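TA notes. Do not distribute before section.
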Amino acid sequence: MTGQGARTPHEGAILRINVGGFRRRLLSTRLSRFPETRLARLLQCQSKESILELCDDYDDLEKEFYFDRNPALFPYVLHFYNTGRLHVMAELCIFSFSQEIEYWGINELFIDSCCSGTYHYRKMEPEQTDWDDKSKEGSSAFSLDEIVDFYNNSGKFDKQPLGSVRRRIWLMMENPGYSLPSRVFSVFSILVVLGSVATMCMNSMSEFTLLDGDGRPCDNPRFETVERFGIGWFTFELLARFAVARDLLHFFQHPLNLIDLVSILPFYLTLMANLVAKRSPALVNLGRVAQVLQLMRVFRILKLARHSTGLRSLGTTLRNSYREIGLLLLYLAVSMSFFSVMAYTVEKEYNDDLSTIQASWWWATVSMTTVGYGDMVPGSVVGKLMASACILAGILVVVLPITLIFNKFSLFYKRQKQLESIMKSCDFDGGIKEAPSVNLRNYYAHKVKALMASLSNMSRRSASN
């Protein structure tokens, strides 16, 4: 190369490349086939300053170009110069590989057809395609976030009055497996919930119905005693959680606390409605409102979610699967519309049960969800063939989104179990009994990949705009 100790290599010259200790000699004729790449642009440099703009260091004596890059990925670059095509191995990180070829000035269009489809699919998806690996990695990342948030929230009690005592009560009530008192408290709460629900069910049975002097049904005193005891316990539980809450302003933003409130509101609203109705005969319709409010007592069964990992995981899954649920409803609506019209067209002259499209909708719904009540069935041969197709289509339509929802449930269940195991091992007065088993390397890689994916999506949107 010429100028300040550098001169342009002649035709057939050899360039000495050092990539993170990985040394190779490359022919300039081979590099010049791809003039837009970084190594080919070195051939056009006329000074040492221009050389250092393309590489990290340059040795004048050895005429060696040094690049501070990953030496494990450079063989893929060499293979590209030798063959003119890029190949991507399955074990490579797609985002690191994408950054690497971008640094060397190699366009993604040079990726061979055997690897192109997989490469672009993996680049569009920030998560790994293998579900087991995805579950482990996502579980670790989620758990560390949750653990850090858990310890931050627990530390808020230190600045509050009676912080140590309130924290112990909070851990006992929020984590059923934290200690022996917390297990006893959890088991007793479950028994009260089950007893309350069982009482509500038995109160609707004619065998346990009592009549007053006028022959009208009235409440059983034994069931009423159990009901009031349950309401008293639920009220005490809610007030105790509110008293030891780390943040009173955001207490009712938690779904489980809202469930606790909804489980006791019907009793107190019914009590107030009955008192007002007795004092004001003109407001006798409030008695009917009280009967409706009594039906809301069934919501107390949701209190079991506080003591069940599976129910909490199910709620989290449904909250984060609105897209999959929307797809399921969309698929069912389209398919039911199609088959209901088909059933109406085929059976309207021979079957009174399927004489309208609305009635056919009910038949299509029951058939596609594989319930099959048998209250409405087609009678003709064509109708039976069409019904068979409807059932098979229902199986396919329901199974596809359900698989995605089940995978999410498995992931959230693993996350919740891992978080609970960490909460069981914590002891704020005597230190932590056991360090959280979280892979920090996987957590960091997960965060970096998500960031790179979001940046890549932003760049693609700006380019399209």
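Switch to the second chain here.
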Amino acid sequence: MTVGQLNLCWISLALLTVVIVFVMSSKTGEKYISVDFEIFGNVQGVCFRMYTEDEGRKLGVTGWVKNTRQGTVIGQVQGPPEKVKEMKYWLSKVGSPSSRIHRAEFSNERDISKLEIHGFGTRY
């Protein structure tokens, strides 16, 4: 084997390694997170649930949202960590146009290997 052939073998091996790493880190192996939330403030009767559904769909996360008898809004969000982080920000700082968010609590954050909820909807 000549030096040129040996270099070609090493280059081929390095390229193959890069391809394998890329395939293994692609969406097929993507990790997701799930987090529960409760939003406090003037968040009922101001279309908060509808806007939450719209924002979840826009971001590409899945989950559900529901009004409580205590005047809060609860729910769950699942998706890629960065998208869930964006949704947490929206829930805690933005909300629907006429809502007034006093506090947002997030709990039970956990890694999941696949989405357990399909779509984003309201629960009653």
